[in-house]
Specification:
This protein has about 650 residues and is mainly beta. It has a domain at about 450-650: Immunoglobulin-like, CATH 2.60.40. About 5% of the residues lie in helices and about 40% in strands. Strands 4-7-11-14-17-20-23-26-29-32-35-38-40 form a 13-stranded parallel sheet, with no helix packed on it. Strands 6, 9, 10, 13, 16, 19, 22, 25, 28, 31, 34, 37 and 39 form a 13-stranded mixed sheet that branches. Strands 5-8-12-15-18-21-24-27-30-33-36 form an eleven-stranded parallel sheet, with no helix packed on it. A hairpin with a 4-residue loop joins strand 42 and strand 43 (about 470). Helix 5 (about 615-625) packs antiparallel against helix 6.
């Protein structure tokens, strides 16, 4: 263990790093005023801990180190030295590149393996109008690194007086070159231009990369400049770089000019992925939350290459929410895409490839995307849009079904409404290709299940002083023994079955579907399969008028008095049986259990043998089970024990029969 005492510009600095477990513990009296001097004193495997302070210096990490700051508890900040923009000491040029040399505030050198955590890397928003030097916060150059829980900000080397220029390039975190693997985890990256997080084999457009870096970029927060004339990129994978982009939050990427400039403001971009020849070296973009305040000139996700997937993201408000361009076997599955102008755009621009391509958008009920809130095609928008901009005229998509987009939820549920949200422009510029080859197949489309939110009370466990039902079976462990611990809501009383019936009248109604539900102590139900839903779902898509029937294992069933319209809309049909006798079909179908301050009706208890009538047979079953505990049908008050109280209820309700047809 080597202990180094240092001073920062703001006060004392303690930097410690250990060689290995067998090394002697040494106290070094030297004061190290900079992080760079501490790095020079370290060897591979050491840990460098940098305490709070502001360090105006360039840090070149040439060894495999654990590099630890104190942010966010206190600020450990690295800022550019005064000569950073002018001195060549901070610039690196290890490969042919468009933006060379690179001026890196923190550089992780080739061949190293570094952890960097807990720093604020602040570029301080320099204004460089005439330089094409790439100005980078953290540069990982042909190295392996874990960049975790840092804040990187203020890398804006752009022309602030006129239109942004592509040659003015700033980067927050950059992974460049080589075939190493890095992880960019839980960082905050804000106000950088052009790239907040960049992973690239090279940015030299004249040569094919020889090696492709892999990076996992997840749980980061990326925030752009909002309405800005500066080019803004969120997370960008370039020239064959690959990996996983997941669980990031990306906001405020937009561009003030409304004229189309495809890459001016983009949240997640994969460019030139076709250089990756193996399906294993693909990119998965999943679980990200990407939002825009305007749909002026921006896009959320753009993929271009080979076998990439966009899965389970939440995206809202972009001019183009997802664009799949020149992709071979791309998948867009399970995303929630809201608003903006175009939900998913499938495009072909190069006209130079002759491989068969298949783009899948949804494709099954399990993988359905929810794509809602875009204007219809008549107003220039689309939920799904197919546009080819071929330059070679070679029939870009050779698959007979280039876009399979079945089973998606467009927020509308008639064929004409769905068709109005799918723009399918056949390209007939080349006479050898039939117009039908450019096709979006979107039928069958998704139609939601019918939903019902029901309130009902059971007489047996109901308590008028609390206006609720007891949860004894729950709290006593009976439900856990029956269904398994943790599989039911904390407020569950028992399970019920809810039945869906259809007919022109209640008397003629017949069962169409039934589903189980959890009955809570306040009389409401929760979905049995997914207790986070306060409604039940019926596996049918036919809209119409339906009757709802509630059944419990030892109570008289009830049915709603009038048919309820159910159309599969997002909001479930709500029906409360408890407020009036007339809410249930038949003559006196429920029992009054409370009359003050408002009337409360409940299902009659004591129907033990489920023959539709409370009679002597039910009393016999209860008598024969007296003393039994646990989940027992004779326990008509759901106390967990069959006793005299149950016999009293059955006796008082003798003669009551079901009114359900």
């Amino acid at each position: 263990m080597l202990i180094v005492r240092c001073c920062s510009l703001m006060g004392p600095l303690l930097i410690s790093f250990g060689l290995n477990d067998n090394a002697a513990v040494k106290q070094v009296p030297n004061d190290y005023p900079t992080i760079s001097l501490a790095v020079s004193a370290a060897v591979d495997g050491d840990t460098i801990r940098v305490y709070a302070g502001t360090y105006a210096e360039h840090v070149n990490v040439t060894k495999s180190l654990f590099f630890i700051g104190s942010w966010p508890d206190t600020a450990t900040t690295i800022q550019p030295p005064v000569d950073f923009m002018s001195s060549s000491l901070y610039r690196y040029q290890s490969q042919p590149a468009l933006f060379n040399p690179r001026a890196a505030l923190v550089r992780i050198a080739p061949g190293t393996n570094v952890l960097m955590q807990g720093f604020v890397v602040d570029g301080m928003n320099p204004n460089r109008d005439t330089s094409n030097v790439a100005f980078t916060g953290i540069l990982i150059e042909s190295a392996s690194a874990t960049i975790k829980r840092n804040k990187v900000m203020g890398f804006l080397p752009s022309d602030t007086s006129g239109a942004p220029n592509a040659t003015f390039s700033g980067r927050g975190i950059e992974v460049l070159g080589g075939d190493a693997e890095s992880t960019i985890d839980s960082n905050i990256v804000v106000t950088c231009q052009r790239y907040h997080i960049l992973v690239s084999s090279t940015d030299d457009k004249t040569a094919t990369p020889g090696a492709f870096p892999k990076a996992t970029v997840y749980r980061n927060t990326v925030m752009g400049l909002g309405q800005s004339k500066l080019g803004q990129k969120g997370i960008w994978y370039n020239w064959g770089a690959y990996g996983k982009i997941s669980d990031n939050t990306i906001t405020q990427l937009d561009y003030t000019v409304s004229a189309v400039e495809p890459d001016r403001a983009s949240a997640v971009v994969v460019r030139h992925g076709e250089f990756r020849t193996s399906g294993k070296s693909r990119i998965v973009i999943s679980g990200n939350t990407i939002t825009a305040s305007t749909a002026n000139n921006n896009k959320a996700i753009f993929i271009e290459g080979n076998c990439d997937s966009v899965v389970g993201n939440t995206i809202s408000g972009f001019r183009w929410n997802v664009q799949v361009d020149d992709q071979d076997s791309a998948y867009v599955l399970g995303n929630t895409i809201t608003g903006g102008n175009v939900g998913v755009l499938v495009s072909a621009t190069t006209g130079s490839k002759t491989v068969s391509r298949l783009v899948t958008i949804g494709g099954s009920t399990v993988n359905k995307n929810t794509i809602t809130g875009q204007p219809p095609t008549s107003q220039g928008g689309a939920a799904i849009q197919l546009v080819f901009r071929e330059t070679g005229g070679d029939g870009e998509f050779l698959s007979p079904l280039p876009v399979v987009a079945t089973h998606n939820d467009f927020g509308v549920y008639t064929p004409s409404e769905v068709a109005a949200r799918v723009f399918d422009r056949a390209d007939t510029s080349n006479g050898t290709w039939p117009a039908s080859i450019d096709t979006v197949v979107f039928d069958p489309f998704y139609t939601p299940k019918l939903r019902a939110s029901v309130k009902v009370f059971l007489q047996g466990p109901y308590s008028s002083p609390t206006d609720s039902m007891s949860r004894t079976l729950n709290t006593g462990g009976t439900l856990a023994a029956r269904y398994g611990a943790g599989t039911y809501p904390a407020l569950a009383v028992d399970s019920v079955n809810i039945e869906l019936r259809t007919a022109s009248s209640a008397a003629a109604s017949t069962t169409r579907k039934f589903v189980p539900a959890w009955l809570l102590n306040d009389g409401t139900v929760q979905n049995f399969a997914d207790p986070t839903k306060s409604y039940v779902e019926f596996d049918t898509t036919l809209t119409g008028n339906y009757y709802l029937v509630v059944r419990h294992r030892n109570h008289i069933p009830i049915m709603c008095n009038t048919a309820q319209w159910m159309d599969g809309s997002t909001s479930p049909t709500v029906y409360d049986f408890s407020t009036a006798q007339a809410k249930a079909f038949g003559t006196n179908p429920m029992i009054l259990v409370d009359s003050s301050p408002g009337t409360v009706y409940a299902m009659y208890s004591g129907e033990v043998n489920q023959n539709g009538l409370v009679n002597a047979a039910d009393r016999t079953i209860v008598k024969n089970n007296t003393g039994a505990s646990g989940f027992n049908v004779a326990d008509v008050n759901l106390s967990g024990l069959v006793n005299a109280a149950d016999r009293t209820i059955v006796k008082s309700n003798t003669g009551v029969q079901s009114q359900v047809p």
